[in-house]
Design brief:
It is built from 4 helices and no strands. With 109 residues, it is mainly α. It has a domain of 58 residues. Helix 1 runs antiparallel to helix 3.
Length: 109
Amino acid sequence: MNKNISQKDRAIRIIAGAVLLPSVVLNTPFTLSLTGIAYVAVALLSVDLLVTGAMGISPMYGLLKKKTPAKKKVVAIKKSVRKPAAKKARAPARKKVPAKRKAAPKRKK
């Protein structure tokens, strides 16, 4: 299976699961107020958060065809370097032919 949870989402899940699971096991004041089904739900939620965070795969995201965005890569802006233009194929050089000059008008005597 492909991972569908980003690194940031995974870290949040692991931290949340690591906080909830000991509070359920040790019966902290938060969990003492929970009874029956709510207590079991919080325990299962904490285990689910830890497992999905560790694996990087969320079955619920798979069913919803959702994927958290991956961290955007920072692309450094490169200065554009002007490359020399490709040399064009030149025709063989022609011999320079002197231009014909008009004859100067004759002067009257």
